[in-house]
Amino acid sequence: MSDPRYLETLYPSYGQQFEMEEVLFRAPTEHQELIIFKNQRFGRVMALDGVIQTTEVDEFIYHEMLTHVPLLAHGSAKRVLIIGGGDGGILREVLRHDAVEQVTQVEIDAQVIEMCKQFLPNHSAGAFEDPRVNIVIDDGKAFVMNCTEKFDVIISDCTDPIGPGEALFESDFYRGCKQCLNEGGIFVAQNGVPFMQPDEAETTKARLQPFFADRTFYCAAVPTYIGGIMSLAWASDDAGLRQHSTEVIAERFARAGFKTRYYNPAIHTGAFALPQYLVDRLAKID
Ligand code: SAM
Question: Which positions are annotated as binding S-methyl-5'-thioadenosine (predicted)?
């Protein structure tokens, strides 16, 4: 009888484990080791290369925060680029904005999309079939380095900088994202748990510096991204985009006309307040 537990291997000397009630899919894809299993507390769970990516029970936190903060801060985004995001959660949240006219999603691993559609259907909830969506199977870095299209918001919903995800933390990727952004555009990205991966925040801020005038992070507390708050990278050329009042965001959120379970205007503006240990580390980077 194989071990009914899934041990996350993101950190060598510390980690979380999940009782696997049922393994729904487990196989290497062209790019990474993919598993989707059922857990009594977190529902269906997906992991790639030993790292928990998303769970049915807490996915709304991360997907709402990585989507609605940039889109409501921008205020009039029509064209959105998603890098990664194979489970479809970000795409689902982006499409809730009726003002968004076109979404391109660049995912390196077609099998992640296919298996998540089949075994994690509530994440995408039909989003991949929306007429506004264009799915591209490609490396996100190669795509943005060669892309001639322009977008208002770019969301990098990437894995950790391990395996194929490493490319999405490199300077060429950030350079490519900048050249794909319209005037007034916003770039956001998954950037790890700073208490556990502090170098990631410093490296990202330094690598964004040549391309964006304003670089910082905002936070969300996602239970299955263990070790503390999750940092989300933020970059644009106008610091004012992240400094709207809670009242302005509340007006835009009301106009957007949908309900959320974690995101709200006060969390939006408060999420940019960073813990002092992170402020101190980032202060070393101009
Ligand atoms: N929410 C998760 C997190 O915070 O770690 C990320 C979820 S999503 C499943 C990550 C996606 O990034 C996966 O579908 C993976 O295949 C994709 N990915 C990894 N490297 C990529 C690359 N270079 N280009 C495009 N997609 C990539």
Answer: 32, 107, 139-140, 164
